[in-house]
Amino acid sequence: MAPVSQPLEKASPLSAGLCNASILLYTLWLLVPAAQTTGRAATGAACVGLFALGALLDQPYRKARLLDFLLRAVCAGLLPLALWFFLHRGGGHFAGYYAQQAMFWFPLLYCAYARQRGDPRLWRYVKPVLLAALVLTTLTTIGWLIEGMSRPGRIYAYSRSLGSGEPDRAVYLKELMLRNIGGYDFVYASMLALPLTCYGAIAHRGWKRAGFALFCAAQFLMIALSQYTYAMVMATAILGMELLAAVLRWLAARAFRRNLSALCSLLCTVPVLLGVYLLRMPLVSWAISVCRQLALVNFESSLTLLQHALAGNVGDTASRLEYYRTALNGFFASPFIGGLPGTNAPLSQHSDLLDLLSAGGLLGAAAFFFLVYFLGRGALRGVARHSAAPHFLLQYTALLVLAALGTVTYSRDISLVLCLGALLVLERGDGRTVERGDGRGCRP
């Protein structure tokens, strides 16, 4: 949102404290397994309630922009309805699904308010709490997955067990959920956090750089152990691009005495990525043979499913390609308005983006994204001038791909990590730096 000519007066300590407490509690509740298991859904509702009360007690903001805030809240209420009625999300449990969706859009509403307010008290302690929660859950997830590998007769990969419906796996699946091992939410949120973790390693020096680098490696290891095929492939692509770009910047500085920007270096990795894509079948076949030789059964299973999808083998019931084609056929049948008149558009139930195009066409999708923009406008203000802009671009490109291949809007972890990551990177100003070839930043 464009900055106003007259900045608002500061909110009261009570108002700022309530808003800050709401996002701190939400972060701990969502990302720490013990807190989520103990707190249940009531804790999430309390987070939203604390924020609403804090915003309403913000007298200067209430007088100047109450209507704007209420309209944003209305958007947050309409988005779940659009997903429910047109994309048929949520199954037959409307109340539970609507509550979950309120939690999904809450971080976006909070960050837009915090960036608009510009008051550091609103995000006090958020950075250490978020990092601590992510590190704690990442490390414990790695530990539980490795421990599960040593158990005879157990399928340790969450992705291979979810939805199997076999009676002997019920206890194991409950154990996984209570420990927050995986699941779709945390694994894919960690994958989308990788570009900003890499930026943290670039932007800092000394022990902080080493810490971010180690955390990045831990995130990748956790994603690999989770066995989520798309997450593994996308995390490998993201890290490969970031590492190759860093090498290119270093070479440019050492060999040519020239500074290569982060954006330019990342764009230089695209041809390499395309080359890998062209060689995808032999590379996947090689990876499968390696996993087979090492007796990594679950890795072999995940890569085999990926091989079926890449080859277009829709005869395999586990392949999602046919589901995607269903939604695409619905979109091409009515590209402008989709299935809105009869609400009978063919849906994949495996892709938020393709289902949105099939149900609403280009016009419906544009209306949905306008509501998302209106709800969170201002949250990314200044990102184009920030030194982290290329990493944000990579992050949101990965988000777009994930929305095309999966159901992003079910995952509250994704919303929290994306929104708070943007807030904590952007809250110190525009962050303009000149990046040197060795990855160090210096003020222009």
Give your account of this protein's structure:
This protein is an all-alpha fold and 444 residues long. It has helices at residues 13-31, 33-56, 59-86, 94-117, 126-149, 158-161, 170-178, 183-203, 207-226, 229-255, 262-268, 270-278, 280-293, 297-310, 321-333, 352-376, 389-405, 412-426, and strands at 434-435, 441-442. A two-stranded antiparallel sheet has the order 1-2. A hairpin with a 5-residue loop joins strand 1 and strand 2 (441-442). Helix 10 packs across helix 11 (262-268). The chain starts with 12 loop residues before the first helix and ends with a strand. Mean pLDDT is 83; it is low at 1-5, 159-165 and 430-444.
Largest sheet report: 2 strands, antiparallel
Portion of residues within helices = over 70%
Q: Quote the beta fraction.
A: under 5%
Structural class given helices, strands, pairing? Answer: mainly alpha
